[in-house]
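Hey, can you fold this?
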Amino acid sequence: MSEKPSRDAAGVHIERIYAKGVRNLAVLDIRPGPGINLVCGGNGAGKTSLLETIYLASRARSFRTGRLGMVGQKGSPASTVALDICSGSSDRWTQGLEWGGAGRRLRCRGAAASPAELATALPLEVISPESHSLVDGAPEVRRAFLDRRLFHVEQDFWPEYRRFRKALAQRNAALGSGAPGRSVQGWDAILVESGERLTRWRADTVSAITQPFKQILETLSPRLSVSLGLNTGWSEEDSLAETLVRHLETDRGRGFTGWGPHRADLKIRVETGQAKGRVSRGQQKLIAAALTMAAASGAGGAILLVDDLLAELDDTHAGNVVSLIENSGTQVFLTATARGRLEAMLGSAPEVFHVEHGVVKPAASS
């Protein structure tokens, strides 16, 4: 095993977590460590809600629901999450958001911010019981996974992605209104130029994560052989421009663009074919964990939020995941119903927090 990275030289890490009016949590104000943070408590105590506050301050949305209003505490006029963050030894800032009846307000480094600016400042990845959807979910789940990594490693990705989506929306509007073919095709040049650039970046991303993914998966489950590839969203026999022309009448009949980068998918295959439907739930979780850790390593050491790791994994596979996480050198937040099983898998003592009835407190040393 490689030497464990020093926590003293941690990259981006959270020094303080503050939250008020979030789900069942009491007012939260804790100072996590720069390495492994273990969050323990019974079911429904608020462990996942603590992870959710971190995610909210990075993405301005929840990883549990698409409705921000559902995250706010019932009866609370407003909800707030804020993180004090450190990068290196001297760069410190605060970021987060407030939402409620007056709308949503995002802040970073003392100024108004966009969701993209929050995400850029604090890269993070999530491993949760729902992570299996990376394997057995819809293509948009895997497409979003690729695009999140691109967002952090390719500075031109976000404006190019918005350019593509705008052109696609305009083309679809023309298709839906029954506009003449020339009006529809007026958007093809932008769609092709932008779409081919996005596709090249996605292909590069798949290539970049394949080797670390295979190395991580080999450690997690040596008998599980998985390959990665990219489905571009159209036939490999044609260019994107040819595809749009070839299927113009079909698109006009359906009222939307049926082929292109917006239909792309990350191909995950085992020896017998597509992994979806061919591997167990536990194997899905291991594949998803390997993908997530490979992506995190390429995003400048993104913070890892790991919810209920022990679900559907035996001690051997869970221990393999914990070992890789501990040796990643990044800040990690792990949840568990009890500290003993996970703590026994760690090579060094973590920071431990106990959650009970929404109250989060540092736990006494074991």
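Oh, and this one too while you're at it.
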Amino acid sequence: MATTLVSDKISQKPLVDSKAFPELPGTVVGGDGTYSYYNNSFYTRSAINVSKKEVDDAITRKLDVKALLSSTFSNTIRIADCGCAIGPNTFYAMKDLIETINHIYQSQCLSTSQTLLEFQVFFVDQPSNDYNTLFTSLPQDIKYFAAGVPGSFHQQMFPESFLHVVHSSYAFHWLSKVPDELVDKNSLAYNKGRILYPFGPVEVVNAYAGQFAKDLDKFLSARAKEMVK
């Protein structure tokens, strides 16, 4: 790979008609058109499929359904998908999670309880996310109660001790802000006419790494408050 610089002459003629992309800062392209995330999310779905076993193993190890139900006197499991976008990948992920949790419940509790679990799924993304496409494409056979929660997952989005499971896939690369160094003209990481950063200065790497670390800390701190202890 090599650093890519874009000159004024090149940038005068866009490669793709900008009108094809609605202005949704910080979100994927909405709708179900040619350039939409809905029709261009095969690779992110592949990542969900590849990581399914690891996710299932983690839930099996960490989630004590029997203890949760006995402590909360409720048969409702609350799940949040942070960075849900507009589907369909989030639906596949939630279906897999619920199947895994139901399997755990059957092995831990069903012999002593005939109560079936109920599920609430909260789809979390930026307010500018295309929730219309998300919910109009919601599968008809879902086995959970669905709700949208608009906002940044870098902050607390739910009451304390509320969620049982939090899922996020292909979302952490969405930073909460552009690193300050990239817009500071006096910084060695200043972004001057560059749209890609392969082999960019180490200052650029450090700026992005620093912002990512801050955002990840905010994400984990918020989820620590929201998760049922």
